[in-house]
Every structure is written in structure tokens, then in C-alpha cells.
Amino acid sequence: MKKTTKRSSKVSPQTFGKSLGRAKKHLPKCPERKVQVLAKMVQDLSPRKRKAVVDLCDNNSKRRKEQDQERKKICHALTNDEVQKVQDFYVRDDISRMLPGKKDYVSVKQADGKREHRQKRELLFKIGGT
After folding, report:
1. Phi and psi for 80 in degrees, rounded to 5?
2. Burial track 16-54 (b if 16+ CB lie within 10 A, e otherwise)
3. Phi, psi of 18 (to 5 degrees)
4. Which residue, of 42, 82, 93, 114, is most buried by count of CB atoms within 10 Å of its CB?
5. Which sequence spans correspond to the domains of the chain?
6. Is 38 within 8 Å of 30 (Cβ atoms)?
7. 123: Cβ contacts below 8 Å, ≥ 6 apart
8. Residue-by-residue pLDDT tens, the chain, 130 positions
């Protein structure tokens, strides 16, 4: 006669992480196929377990949306005007000089999504000395 022990539903974070890693390792690499496999797994669950999985997913997405809405702007962050003034200061010729090479440029992404090439600059003084 075997003794059966009831396992608790709580799993330690280490054990859960290990199980999750194993499951991810054996899932297909293709995103479409991965979705198909996971959907089939959920479909094969009993109605009660399927409802629990769906509820859990819904709660996680709601919680994420609430966290995104609650984020506040940092009170000591620089305004766009202040950022522009700092950039203009460091681009001045008495503070920094342009590097002469043709390949000495940086590609900077603009707010509209386009990239702009800017020539690299070298500071003439230490930051504290300017």
C-alpha cells in the first residue's frame, strides 16, 4: 500500500524557474508553431483548469496595463528645452572640435524615425573644466 502525500500548490521560485526553463527549451523555435503548441495544450486542459489559465493570463495583462498607466514622469528630469541647450553648448566650436575623418560620424535616430549622420566631436576640456 502506497502512501500518497498531498503536494502544496505553492512552488518555490527556483523550482518554477527551472520548470519554465525546461518547457521553453523544448518548445519549437518558430513563433507561429510555438503559439499552436501552447494553444493545443490549453485546449486539452479540463474546463476548470482552462478557465484558471485564461483568468491568470487576463489578470497579468490587466496588471501590466495598470502599471503602465501609473508610471509618472520623474520630477527632476530635464525638459526638452534644457536638453537642447546642453546639446547646443557641447556642439560649440570653443568647447569641442569635429573629428576630421570621413568615417568619423554617428548615426542618430530622429523623433520622426529617420536617421541623421552627425560628425563626431571631441571635447577640448574636461567636463568639470568647461
Report:
1. -65, -35
2. eeeeeeeeeeeeeeeeeeeeeeeeeeeeeeeeeeeeeee
3. -65, -45
4. 42
5. 16-70, 80-129
6. no
7. 90, 95, 96, 130
8. 555 555 556 788 898 889 888 988 998 888 889 889 888 888 888 888 888 888 887 777 777 777 766 666 677 888 889 999 999 999 999 999 999 988 899 999 988 989 999 999 999 988 887 6
